[in-house]
Specification:
The structure is a homodimer. Chain A is α+β, with helices and mostly antiparallel strands. Chain A is built from 13 helices and twelve strands. Chain A is about 45% helix and about 20% strand. Chain A is globular and about 55 Å long.
């Protein structure tokens, strides 16, 4: 695999140009380019430029509206809904999260329901934004059926990621974002592309047998992480992201998708909580002491640390040369 | 192990008498007896009468106040706090949940923070109550350090259970309640008592080595379910139950506990969400269709089904004879 160095600005521009020249207006292109830039900056390659060809497919097929103007509604004083009008998720998030911060900073808890969006990115940017505003964040989205519920052998759940953040004012927040699949779909795709094996337990082949070949798993089914308990978390994500928002469950997303390879329509649910309003004055010290204790345990890493360290490097990033060529060929 | 049949009423009365004769007033004794009765009725033995000796120890040592009168406060229009005054959790829950239902049914999302409580029971009764009121429920509590974060070998997290419920009007709700430990502490204790082995991966012995002997794990440390992803869920539970409520983290609970063997002081956080207000009119059919599809998958069981089936049986329950003798010896 040949790697090429790109500056962070070049990464942003490449993503922006790909969106702009395929039908996105300024607002949509900027929101998406920012998300791709952040992913590459933090080392989340499976959610960076790797996603651009899929985004372009969705624009070209007309499934995604690159000029969509999301509509914000207050369903109650604590609940905001943003109807994306079939935009990519980042623009709807950008608009909704700002309002979610305002609501939660006043009421202690708030909920953001995103509908008519197409989510194809990581979820940590959403919850990290909440943490930067001194709020706890929980975000969930469903996707296309690719994971078998515990006991089953057929795809039903999406890879159903859940992201969580906890603010530590003056320090990096605790942030994680993980598929409830044993391995994220994007990681399995990268392993397949690079000819690597994956750990046993990642998934089943088309006959329902365990395999460590990512190509066979992509034709078969992923397993949830952690057996029936992980399956229960995947179920929660599915019900929050689609049941509560009223958007499509993973199986509906598949049934109604045009199969262009881009992200299907779906929903996202984001909960924000203010520890300041609930725990009271001592919450910052209390939280800092906790992180100090956790970090001091031999062998333990605080979630989010690696990304935050990657971010300190402003230098160029190594990007797959074939991917850059592919994206350049999509500029029209 | 000798088993004795007890009617459900006899189970309730045994629990009630144990509480009443050890310093509980009427309200505290009733709330606790109801929780123990529900656990035995549904087959959750590790949270039923098995817990009574521990409850009594906490009353006798004075750690728990059996006559506590919990205080309810509205921190904001969406956030309720109940200060338990060192009661057992069920009484504080009973008072707080009623208000949480009212708030959430109006505002779409609500949060209940329980502090100064002693939680020693299952969490499904809390979230099932929310589901019976057509709300989604998420509940978390921390405990004493007994689980090593992924990568570590020393206890830091509690068994940190998370419970989730989703209402399906006209049908049984989806409900689960699980420790984020590979196995609940109560289950390990039962296995140790009954001389059984536990699955590999449940925990480490005192030297940090894997073992399937529950007695060695009780002296060593439990592992989280599902590796680093399960550890991330355990971390979320710890931060919600103690960080957001401002109550004791698991390690603080241990440091400040009197070691009487009863439940330490801690917090509990409960979130409720109204799908009706957020998803809109079609939510009931949408949710029913989802459960029908999930149930139809070969080998898959919908969480909560077994408990709800056990509940249909009004007959007597088989209880460990030694346990009954122990509890009777605690009646004064």
């Amino acid at each position: 695999m040949t790697l090429i160095s790109l500056d962070l600005n070049e990464i942003y521009k490449l993503a922006y140009d790909a969106m702009k020249s395929n039908g996105c207006d300024e607002a949509n292109a900027k929101a998406l380019a920012q998300i791709i830039y952040s992913a590459e900056r933090d080392g989340s390659h499976s959610h960076g430029l790797f996603r651009v060809p899929g985004y372009v497919k969705a624009l070209r097929s007309g499934k995604v509206n690159g000029k969509a103007k999301p509509i914000v509604e207050s369903l109650t004083s604590s609940v905001i809904r943003v109807k994306g009008g079939n935009c990519f998720a980042p623009l709807a998030q950008k608009i909704g999260l700002k309002k979610l911060v305002a609501v939660t900073s006043e009421l202690g808890i708030g909920l953001l329901s995103l509908t008519e969006i197409h989510h194809f990115a990581a979820l940590w940017p959403e919850v990290e934004y909440l943490a930067e505003n001194k709020l706890v964040g929980i975000a969930c989205t469903a996707y296309m059926p690719s994971v078998a519920p515990a006991g089953g052998k057929k795809p039903f759940f999406g890879t159903n990621p859940i992201a969580f953040s906890y603010p530590i004012p003056g320090e990096d927040p605790i942030v994680y974002d993980m598929a409830t699949a044993a391995m994220a779909q994007g990681e399995v795709q990268l392993a397949a592309r690079d000819g690597k094996r994956v750990p046993a337990g990642t998934g089943l082949d088309i006959n329902g047998e365990l395999t460590d070949d990512p190509k066979k798993i992509l034709k078969g089914v992923l397993l949830p992480f952690g057996g029936y308990k992980g399956s229960a978390i995947a179920l929660m994500v599915e019900l929050l992201a689609a049941g509560v928002t009223g958007e499509q469950f993973s199986y509906e997303a598949k049934e109604n998708d045009n199969g262009d390879g881009g992200p299907p329509q779906g929903g996202q649910l984001i909960i924000a909580i203010s520890p300041k309003l609930i725990a009271g004055k001592n919450w910052v010290k209390h939280s800092k002491d906790f992180v100090a204790r956790l970090s001091a345990i031999d062998g333990v890493r605080v979630p989010g640390k690696r990304r935050h360290q990657n971010r300190l490097n402003n230098g160029p990033r190594k990007i797959n040369a074939d991917l850059i060529e592919t994206i350049k060929s999509l500029l029209v």
